[in-house]
Amino acid sequence: QLTVWHLLLLLEVGPDALSLRCFTCTKPTDLANCLTIANCSEGEGTCKTTVHSVDSGYPFFGNITVTKSCSEVCVPAEPDGIGENHPDYCCSTDLCNVGAGQPASTTSSAVVVTAAVASGLLWTRL
């Protein structure tokens, strides 16, 4: 039930409260430094992250350079797309583009944990 208090609250915070918020950096920036938050415009329903470079090599602690923005259209990278020059990652909830791409799913994390426990049990022969 919508009360006068709710209406006053909506008027107080304004229309920006209803817009999507994304992390943004317009120039390629180190992932750890891309922390500016923007209220997206009407019609921009996606947060977009483009990965520009990943310094590779063992132990894989290289810097990741990204650009991030609000976007009307975002075509995500293929999950198994190897060798894409600048893959795009898309999401559509507030501040969802905090990282450099899609987070690991709960299912894949559970599989990894189960495999690790099974390996440990086999190793100790329990």
Automatic annotation (TrEMBL):
Keywords tagged on the record: Cell membrane, Disulfide bond, Glycoprotein, Membrane, Secreted, Signal
Main location, first listed in the record: membrane
GO cellular component, one term: extracellular region
Alphabetical list of InterPro entries matching this protein: CD59_antigen_CS (IPR018363), Ly-6/neurotoxin-like_GPI-ap (IPR051110), LY6_UPA_recep-like (IPR016054), Snake_toxin-like_sf (IPR045860), Toxin/TOLIP (IPR035076)
SUPFAM superfamilies per UniProt: Snake toxin-like
Compartment(s): Cell membrane; Secreted
Any Pfam family matching the protein: Toxin_TOLIP
KW S-adenosyl-L-methionine (keyword) present: no
Signal peptide (from-to): 1-19
UPAR/Ly6 domain mapped to chain residues: 20-110
Domain of life: Eukaryota
Name this polypeptide is given: UPAR/Ly6 domain-containing protein
Protein's organism: Varanus komodoensis (Komodo dragon)
Top-level taxonomy: Eukaryota, Metazoa, Chordata, Craniata, Vertebrata
